[in-house]
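Extended Data, record Agrin isoform X2
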Amino acid sequence: MTSCHYPTPRPERDRMYQHKVSLVVRYFMIPCNICLILLATSTLGFAVLLFLNNYKPPTPPHIPPPDGCRGKLCGFGAVCERDSTDPSKGECVCKKMVCPSVVAPVCGSDSSTYSNECELEKAQCNTQRRIKVMRKGSCALKDPCSEVTCSYGSTCIQSSDGRSAKCMCPLSCENVPKVTVCGSDGLDYASECALNMKACSTNKNIRLQHIGSCDPCRMNRNSLNVLCAYNAQTQKTKTLSPPSACPPGSEPLCASDGRNYNTECLMERTALQKERQLKKVHSGPCKKQEECQEECKFSAVCLLEHGRARCSCEPIRCDDTYTPVCGDDGHTYPNDCERRRAECLTQTTIRSKQQGPC
């Protein structure tokens, strides 16, 4: 073993800096079986470590290559597999599906006939495009449901061989998402499936009127403190306080119905209350020629245009609440406002025969 040599410092300097040399050696954890060369410098006054023989730098930690399949989505039943030579690359591949030899032909949405649904799914993966089962049986066969007319909420179900079909009622709606729908009978149902079950079990022709409750304003319908209107397209209700809640005003205005209103608030609330469209024509009271000179019949309302007033059906504005009314003309109207509008348009008296569809 090679011994370490270093110049011998003066005794007084050795005593002065001995503890510093010891601290440097202990701090760097220098192994004893290697050779050190320590030079005592007169300018710095402490030991300087020059080099270590057989010193090995620490091995850097192993960092695995990035996963090429991480975050990669594959469709139509395919799965991601990493490249064996470069794991940072991933590719969507179809599994080797082993389909049963059962012959249960189905017609796909690509107009191709498959021996069974498994073969259709395999083709869907290989072509990477959606292929749906259009019907059971060969595409060359005529769809048996094309000659069957189902009613009362029933649906056409094909036989296992795809050669015949019959109408069947929905057996259960447990796995169907609950989305409230309005039926043509004026009742709410938890889903369209529930509506069809009711129609099928009662042998009644109940149709889907619209998505959402038939009358979302039901809770406010008999309230004297709230006016409510429903828009089926946006599925939102509009609620306002009645005209009596408007603050008093001292500057009247002339509205499009030829009447005077103290404030625009009073005009807007009256329009919602009477289910008609009202607009401000000008500030100040209406003139004599701007008022309807005769009483409007058949539910028509006064309309002021170009300085002249006349009876019209245009201002009638019905909301989308479905509270069916049977008129004495044998027609079912979505609500009483629609009955009054039909009365105006036909210029005939249509009385309400009963609440509910005819």
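Summary. The first strand starts at residue 36 and ends at 40.
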